[in-house]
Design goal:
Blueprint lengths: L1 E2 L12 H6 L7 E6 L5 H14 L6 E5 L2 E5 L26 E6 L2 E6 L6 H20 L54 E9 H10 L4 H16 L8 E8 L1 H4 L9 E8 L1 H23 L2 H14 L10 E8 L9 E7 L5 E7 L2 E9 L4 H12 L5 E2 L3 E2 L7
Parallel strand pairs: 8-10, 10-12
Antiparallel strand pairs: 1-4, 2-6, 2-11, 3-4, 5-6, 7-13, 7-14, 7-15, 8-9, 12-13
Helix pairs in contact: 2-3, 5-7, 5-9
Length: about 400
């Protein structure tokens, strides 16, 4: 049975379908290292149970006459034994828009953004791990926590905006300096690399609070200072950071798997750093973020998106920051040795906490790991222990 709601696909150059057809689709990859080798049959049972819990994940997507539709997919779920992911929607996955694979002790989960946003991806991945522990270890655990009694498919395109009135737009820099590593070579090839900066969670939070700001703003300031220190071309340029926002609560949307993320954008200059430092910039930019994420402002922005059918294109951030919160797998934690949560998008910073660590996952073009190392150096200069892992080049996903 077709699910016939128009998903409002953006232009081809940035559309999710385009990215699926042309390879890299590494969005919110959730990798878990267990304490022994993965049992493929138990994992398959765990995935099937998770899909029953969250039915939208099991849909396929069709593209007809410029419109994107969900359709039911009754094909068998394929769980590849592979260290690399497979592009969702490929024949190798029987058309499913998610991929759960495994190798040795590692489980890798990835759901297409056509199906859900990062919040839904995390819930699905957690359900897979919890069910695996139940089938493999006999863990007495609830398979997963539902968003609600009913999984809904609602986003800001569906809201009633009849009472929305214009609000004063928060002033922010729309066009940020583009880092030179972002520019593709003549062959159009740009390898995306990843490295992780690890810091003690308690010390990092003390540092954030001491400067009167929020985690996302502090991450933006740390990365901006590193860019100014390590990229001569950035001198006298404005750096803009896009902060992703889960807009469900502010927009009054119930728990859902459908995309409900908007974003705000803040900026800084090297001169401002010299004059105000962390303690001056932190509170000011935090106020800007609060204004841009107020219910009134978000509804005003969402109305504009709903009216035009696409996301705004005038924003050009230098980098994007996504703070994903804590990863806690409850009574499965005893069997989980490590978790890595990342995306394959150049110049993005994903942040989460696990096992008492703040983990800053940097995604850069090949050769730009100096910015991540710079952040670690800045943290150490502030008296915070910080370790920067070696840079790893992310592989292209197999098209299948």
């Amino acid at each position: 049975m077709d699910y016939d709601r128009n998903m409002k696909t953006p232009n081809k150059a940035g559309s999710l379908l385009y990215r699926v057809e042309n390879g890299r689709n590494l969005h919110n990859v959730f990798e878990v290292v267990m304490d022994d080798r993965i049992n493929g049959e138990h994992l398959k049972s765990a995935v099937e149970e998770a899909v029953r819990l969250y039915p939208p994940v099991g849909y396929s997507v069709v593209f007809e006459d410029g419109m994107t539709y969900f359709t039911d997919n009754d094909n068998d779920i394929v769980i590849p034994e592979s260290a690399a992911g497979i592009v969702q929607g490929s024949k190798a996955l029987n058309g499913h828009m998610f991929c759960v694979s495994y190798k040795d002790r590692k489980i890798r989960s990835n759901v297409s953004h056509m199906i859900t946003d990062g919040g839904g991806m995390g819930r699905f991945a957690s359900a897979v791990v919890r069910n695996y522990c139940r089938f493999h270890y006999g863990t007495d655990t609830v398979s997963a926590r539902k968003f609600s009694d009913e999984i809904l498919l609602t986003d800001f395109f569906d809201l009633d905006y009849s009472d929305v009135t214009p609000v004063k737009e928060e002033v922010f820099e729309k066009q940020g300096f583009v880092l030179p590593e972002t520019i593709r070579g003549k062959e159009g090839i740009m390898n995306t690399a990843m490295c992780i900066v690890r810091v003690p969670e308690d010390r990092f939070m003390e540092f954030v609070e001491a400067n009167g700001t929020s985690v996302s703003v502090m991450l933006f300031l740390l990365l901006a200072r590193s860019v100014y220190q390590n990229c001569p071309e950035a001198k006298d340029q404005t750096l803009a950071g896009r902060i992703t926002v889960n807009a469900r609560k502010q927009l009054g949307i119930p728990d859902t798997f459908v995309n409900c993320s908007l974003g705000s954008q803040i900026s800084v200059t090297e001169k401002e750093f010299a004059e105000e430092g962390f303690s001056g910039l932190g509170p000011r930019l935090r106020t800007s973020i609060k204004t841009q994420t107020s219910p009134e402002y978000l509804r005003y922005i969402a109305k504009g998106i709903a009216d035009t059918g696409s996301f705004p294109t005038e924003l050009r951030p230098t980098f994007t920051i996504s703070y994903m919160g804590a990863i806690d797998l409850a009574d499965c934690n005893d069997h989980v040795k490590d978790v890595v949560l990342y995306e394959g998008e150049c110049h993005k910073l994903n942040v989460y906490t696990f096992g008492g660590e703040f983990r800053l996952v940097f995604h850069f073009a090949d050769g730009s790991g100096k910015y991540a190392k710079g952040v670690a150096d800045i943290l150490r200069s502030e008296g915070i222990d910080a370790v920067c892992d070696d840079m790893v080049i992310l592989p292209e996903e197999e098209k299948g």
